[in-house]
Design a protein that fits this description.
The chain contains 5 helices and 6 strands. It has a 6-stranded mixed β-sheet, with helices on both faces.
């Protein structure tokens, strides 16, 4: 956090467990396949990566939480940094939390979403990789995720597929609204 830009303007943070498609989503939003590096190995993002969208308007890609090829000490350090960033960063106007729809919401996903809700941060929960599910699984996962989100006053949900390019316009609209563009 100490290396972030001045605390002025607007920021939308992007968070998610390791390997949910954060980098792929950033690349799709920017229409640039090489902007954010993606990897098949979880836990490659090790820093807060800042993407300048316009003057004093940024997307902040945070390291993945949950399974990562990092020590427990490093994971605890990231948790502390996340909490400090969310609670103290004046420019943070919203958070996008990405989950992999092939899996049920994890305890860490639920805890993060509840924490963001308590902090009254506008949040977009993105259910990514929807194209990799069967029709029945898609329906079940949508019910599970939207049911949970309905309990959170500051969270909305969108289901996406970066590969199939659906659901992305809602994410773009969310980013533009919260970066005041």
């Amino acid at each position: 956090m100490s290396h972030l830009t001045e605390d002025e303007g607007y920021e939308v943070a992007i968070m998610g467990r390791s390997n949910v498609g954060k980098s792929s989503l950033i690349n799709a939003l920017a229409n640039n396949k090489k902007l954010a590096r993606s990897s098949q190995k979880p836990g490659c993002t090790a820093y807060f990566n800042c993407y300048q969208v316009a003057e004093n308007r940024r997307l902040i890609d945070l390291p993945g939480y949950g399974f990562a090829r990092r020590s427990k000490q490093m994971q605890r350090h990231w948790e502390s940094e996340f909490e400090q960033y969310i609670q103290s960063r004046n420019t943070l106007s919203a958070v996008i939390v990405i989950v992999d729809t092939r899996h049920m919401l994890k305890v860490s996903d639920v805890a993060l979403l509840e924490f963001l809700n308590e902090c009254q941060i506008p949040t977009l929960l993105v259910g990514n990789k929807l194209d990799l599910l069967t029709q029945q699984s898609k329906h079940q996962r949508k019910i599970q995720i939207t049911g949970f989100v309905s309990q959170l006053s500051n969270t909305v949900v969108e289901f996406t597929s970066v590969k199939k390019k659906f659901g992305l316009s809602t994410v773009v609209d969310f980013v533009k609204m919260h970066l005041c563009m």
